From TrEMBL:
Species of origin: Nocardioides simplex
CDD domains per the UniProt record, alphabetical: cysteine_hydrolases (cd00431)
Protein's name according to its UniProt entry: Cysteine hydrolase
Record bears the keyword Glycoprotein: no
InterPro entries recorded: Isochorismatase-like_dom, Isochorismatase-like_hydrls, Isochorismatase-like_sf
Pfam families given in the database record: Isochorismatase
Domain of life, source organism: Bacteria
Record-level Gene Ontology MF annotations: nicotinamidase activity
Length: 211
């Protein structure tokens, strides 16, 4: 899936969404609640994500990691009248609680993260919702946002929609995003390609940046 445009690395930022123990590690809260299959796809993309981060570092493209953090005393969640997507499945998931191993970035992300990279702590699905991400992107003069990570149909999708609404160009290398639901993953990629950005692959992204 080659890109039809050449990308100038000076215009580009890389956003790595929620590559955390709770979402991706077999011993994290999602893996414990739903089994190893629930984290297989996020586990499978780790090598592609690290390759893309390596590429960004080599080309001096700024990198952001998001870190989802939930509070035990989040009164906003307790006020909701409609059950959450997890409650509707009969699951109580203590996901990415503040100060826990579950909320930490995967060891593979910690190993590749450099001091110049940023971490955006978020409390809801979109990396833009009440965070400093937008102003940080503007300060770095980012126009094209390359988005990686999990979960394709929720946090990745929410972030991409918000990026599009803020007039960023969005690029998604398909083998660098993952979902526990293959159908939802495919449908979201189709929606991104139709409305909110372009879907490519890692060779296509590399050629567009470094060709």
């Amino acid at each position: 899936m080659p890109l039809s445009v050449k990308l100038d690395p000076r215009d580009v930022g890389l956003l790595v969404v929620d590559m955390q123990n709770g979402f991706c590690h077999p011993e994290g809260s999602r893996g414990q609640a739903f089994g190893a299959d629930a984290v297989k796809n996020p586990q499978d993309i780790i090598p592609n994500v690290t390759k893309t981060i390596d590429l960004a570092h080599r080309l001096d493209i700024p990198v952001w990691f998001t870190q989802q953090v939930h509070y035990d005393d989040d009164v906003l969640r307790s006020r909701r009248r409609i059950p959450s997507h997890l409650e509707r499945r009969g699951v109580k998931l203590e996901l990415c609680r503040r100060g826990t191993w579950d909320a930490e970035l995967l060891d593979e992300m910690k190993a590749i993260k450099e001091d110049r990279d940023e971490v955006v702590v978020k409390h809801r699905s979109s990396a833009f919702f009440q965070t400093t991400l937008e102003v940080e992107l503007r300060m770095k003069d980012v126009q094209v946002l390359v988005v990686l990570g999990t979960t394709t149909s929720f946090c990745v999708d929410s972030t991409i929609r918000d990026a599009y609404a803020r007039d960023f160009d969005v690029v998604v290398p398909a083998e660098c995003v993952a979902d526990s639901d293959d159908a939802a993953h495919a449908a979201t990629l189709a929606s991104i390609e139709r409305f909110h950005g372009v879907v490519t692959d890692l060779p296509g992204l590399t050629a567009a940046l470094d060709g």
